[in-house]
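Budget justification aside, the reviewers requested a transparent look at the raw inputs and outputs of the sequence design task funded under Objective 1. We therefore reproduce one unedited record. The lines immediately below are the structure tokens for a 432-residue chain.
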């Protein structure tokens, strides 16, 4: 009788073939590897933000440059330019700057909520300004404000509390370029591979720049956005308090001195900040592996063990983006050559799963997503000091052992690894 490792290896090899056929599209030309690198260093003003950065080749709007996009991403807002009234950070890079601009950080976001009498999650009302001003339907509690009267605090009745780490945005232009059908195929194969135990959920969310149009969510811990422009506009409003053409109304008017919308096209190309942000993210390269460590025999063996224990069911090792020319985001964006037909290695599936660490918050998804979170892509893993959505895990071992629920079997197989196998697996993960 075959051992569980042999059985898993045999089954997984067969399913990988199915996944490859489902996920990898076959356009007129063969797919090529996406460019990788940490190529957006954060420089002081004297060095010139973005002046040493290299993009993935994404074409820029007339009069714009990748350096200017990064400079806008790093620019700190002030009260005079629309900061607040409630906010978490003054610049996008405050939350996305490890190890380069666009990466992750130690910053956490604070969300709250409560259950109604039927057990369904509901966004609470946050009251500010000495109890005089309500902010309804608000799960996000901003840690900062431009005046004492606007400072938010968790309501007493909101007994669901959650912290979320900022996610890396590097390589997300390729993620945006993944066809919905590729994600649907991954979701459909997961129950077959796991005897029904793993079943990632794909949700459809509205595309802000295409009213009435929806697409498979893939950005944020709850897959609450499908496009990088929508994601940028949401973060600009909710993390910095700056309104735009897509979200033109501020959270509150307490202490506010500027007029909505605050983000207006500027300069010769007439590009708004949210467009700079989205273009910058789309232009970043995918996070690279540590090629020296990844080439070692231990890391190569660790990669095989990673697949054998079942981690690759959710942490999918390779996905191919849609062909160049594919129209996405409700007809508002066409996949360019720089992003199209590229093989990426995110070690993620961009689907929602319940692995026992859910935060109880519902965003843009159905009620059953309350305790589900997006699979954390493992590319760039070696650059993160705090792991999991809440940052509570400070070691790979702890993060793996916290995987229960849908991932219970994979976590259980991890416990049965001998010392040599464990060393090889961790070596592989440290190379990502």
């Amino acid at each position: 009788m075959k051992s569980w490792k042999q059985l898993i290896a045999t089954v997984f090899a067969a399913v990988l073939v199915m996944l490859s056929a489902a996920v990898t599209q076959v356009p007129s030309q063969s797919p090529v590897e996406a460019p990788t690198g940490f190529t957006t260093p954060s420089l002081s003003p004297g060095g010139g933000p973005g002046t040493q950065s290299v993009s993935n080749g994404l074409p820029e709007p007339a009069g714009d440059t990748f350096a200017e996009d990064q400079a806008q991403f790093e620019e700190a807002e002030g009260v005079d330019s629309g900061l607040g009234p409630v906010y978490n950070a003054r610049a996008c890079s405050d939350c996305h700057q490890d190890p380069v601009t666009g990466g992750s950080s130690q910053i956490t976001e604070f969300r709250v909520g409560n259950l109604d009498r039927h057990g369904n999650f509901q966004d609470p009302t946050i009251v500010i300004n000495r109890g005089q001003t309500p902010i309804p339907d608000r799960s996000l509690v901003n840690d900062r404000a431009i005046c004492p009267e606007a400072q938010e605090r968790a309501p007493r009745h909101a007994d669901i509390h959650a912290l979320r780490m900022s996610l890396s945005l590097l390589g997300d232009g390729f993620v945006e370029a993944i066809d919905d059908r590729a994600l649907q195929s991954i979701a459909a194969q997961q129950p077959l591979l796991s005897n029904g135990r793993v079943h990632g959920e794909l949700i459809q969310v509205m595309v802000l720049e295409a009213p009435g149009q929806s697409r498979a969510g893939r950005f944020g811990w709850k897959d609450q956005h499908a496009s990088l422009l929508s994601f940028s506009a949401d973060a600009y409003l909710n993390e910095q308090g700056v309104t735009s053409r897509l979200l033109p109304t501020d959270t509150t008017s307490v202490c506010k001195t500027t007029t909505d919308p605050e983000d207006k096209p500027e300069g010769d190309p007439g590009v708004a900040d949210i467009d700079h942000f989205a273009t910058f993210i789309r232009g970043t390269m995918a996070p690279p592996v540590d090629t020296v460590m990844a080439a070692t025999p231990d890391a190569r063996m660790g990669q095989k063990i990673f697949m054998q224990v079942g981690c690759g069911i959710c942490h999918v090792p390779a996905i191919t983006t849609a062909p160049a020319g594919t129209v996405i985001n409700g007809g508002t964006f066409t996949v360019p050559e720089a992003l199209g037909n590229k093989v990426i290695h995110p070690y993620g599936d961009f689907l929602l799963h319940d692995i026992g660490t859910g935060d109880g918050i519902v965003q843009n998804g159905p009620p059953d997503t309350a305790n589900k979170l997006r699979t954390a892509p493992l590319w760039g893993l070696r650059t993160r000091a705090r792991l999991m959505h809440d940052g509570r895990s400070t070691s790979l071992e702890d993060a793996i052992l916290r995987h229960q629920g849908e991932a219970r079997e994979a976590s259980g197989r991890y416990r049965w690894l001998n010392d040599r196998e464990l060393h090889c697996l961790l070596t592989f993960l440290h190379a990502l």
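The radius of gyration is 22 Å. Confidence is low (pLDDT under 50) at residues 14-27. Computational costs for records of this kind are itemized in the attached budget.
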